[in-house]
Inverse folding.
């Protein structure tokens, strides 16, 4: 049995995943633009709906790919004399997976979680600290600017990344270099933020902090 055509089709489907991923990245950027320019909350909410639609497509695509891969592996294992209807078999598996869907699946989509996280950070940066500002605007600015400083380089960050585990931010190159250096010594990296108890910083736990980067860039332009 030749599976070349099927493998080629699966490869094309996997390419579609990258388009969905790019679409979600774009929707995140648009939502951050809206918050930054103080747009209506309804506009921001509409971007969240777009993200959930993308997450739904991503889940369906993942199920479809998984259903076909499982079907092919099953046929390769069993090696039947007569080739079964692969499409029907895959469709059955796909529908079985889809029947177990729940809204919480979408909420756990990695890109959607990043979207929500960055949106929260952006709103905090642009709409938070109102009471502090009323008391003393200089204190508010000073506190905000302290968040711009990398705990490793002690300089204003240019490409901040946030640790998903402890929530602290660092300059991307600085923390990656620290991880690499300690890895060569076969040692874990303790979070360099003073007072943090997290003792195993991993590169896979770091995500770009686009919200903070925008605030820093905006501050630098002033």
């Amino acid at each position: 049995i030749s599976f070349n055509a099927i493998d080629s089709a699966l490869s094309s489907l996997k390419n579609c995943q990258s388009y969905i991923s790019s679409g979600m990245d774009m929707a995140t950027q648009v939502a951050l633009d809206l918050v930054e320019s103080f747009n209506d909350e309804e506009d921001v909410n509409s971007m969240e709906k777009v993200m959930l639609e993308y997450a739904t497509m991503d889940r369906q695509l993942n199920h479809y790919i998984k259903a076909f891969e499982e079907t092919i592996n099953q046929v390769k294992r069993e090696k039947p004399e007569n080739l079964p209807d692969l499409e029907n078999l895959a469709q059955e598996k796909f529908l079985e997976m889809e029947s177990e869907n729940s809204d919480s699946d979408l909420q756990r989509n990695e890109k959607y979680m990043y979207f929500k996280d960055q949106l929260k950070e952006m709103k905090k940066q642009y709409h938070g600290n109102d009471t502090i500002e009323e008391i003393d605007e200089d204190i508010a600015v000073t506190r905000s600017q302290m968040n711009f400083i990398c705990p490793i380089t002690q300089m204003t960050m240019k490409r901040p990344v946030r640790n998903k585990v402890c929530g602290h931010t660092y300059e991307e190159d600085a923390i990656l270099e620290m991880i690499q250096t300690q890895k060569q010594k076969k040692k874990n990296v303790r979070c360099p933020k003073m007072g943090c108890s997290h003792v195993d910083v991993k590169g896979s736990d770091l995500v770009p902090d686009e919200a903070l980067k925008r605030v820093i860039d905006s501050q630098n332009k002033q």
